[in-house]
Amino acid sequence: MELQDLLTKYGSHTNIKAIAHHLSSSSGILRLKGLAGSATALSLAAVFTGGQRDFSLVQDDAEQAAYLYHDLNQLLGRDRVYFFPSSFWRRIGQGQEDAGNITLRTEVLNALQFSSREPLIVVS
Q1: pLDDT digits (tens, 9 = 90+) for 94-116
Q2: pTM for the complete prediction?
Q3: How far apart are CA 83 and CA 72, in angstroms?
Q4: Are strands 81-83 and 94-97 parallel, antiparallel or unpaired?
Q5: Overall number of domains in the chain
Q6: C-alpha angle with apex 25: 23 to 28, nearest 5 degrees?
Q7: Among 27, 42, 65, 72, who pairs with 81 as Cys (CB 3.0-4.6 Å)?
Q8: Mean pLDDT, the chain, as a whole number?
Q9: Does 43 score more than 60 pLDDT?
């Protein structure tokens, strides 16, 4: 089974359709709970492919964000998913700027500023 077939099957599930309807008819804020493994990424990718709006996904910590970013990258491709990390490297008692993360953040902002583009997912 190909990834696109899997996304199509996920997209036809009633719960995924309900999520898509909620996002299209409300403020667009949603919290998903109780999903294990890559089910979060599969569900979000299925909803994303059926719509025409940007997604901003906020995770509890950088590690969870990195895992979700990687899964979504595999499902949707590198040109549709971006990682928006913290610009500071945290050390006990002080925060120092992280040049690599600042570069990633700039890449995300540059991608978002074009008006004639496809919808994007930003994971933070």
Answers
A1: 666 666 777 777 787 788 887 66
A2: 0.81
A3: 10
A4: unpaired
A5: 1
A6: 35
A7: 72
A8: 83
A9: yes
The three-point CA angle 25-123-11 to 5° equals 50
DSSP string, the chain: --HHHHHHHHHTSHHHHHHHHHHHHSSS-----S--TTHHHHHHHHHHHT--S-EEE--SSHHHHHHHHHHHHHHH-TTTEEE---SEEEETTEEEE-HHHHHHHHHHHHHHT-SSS---EEE-
Sorted by sequence, the CB contacts under 8 Å of residue 74 that are 6+ apart come out as 3
Q: Which amino acid, 33?
A: K
- Domain of 18? 3-123
Report helix angle 62-76 to 39-49, nearest 10.
50
Q: Mean pLDDT, to the nearest integer, of 12-24?
A: 88
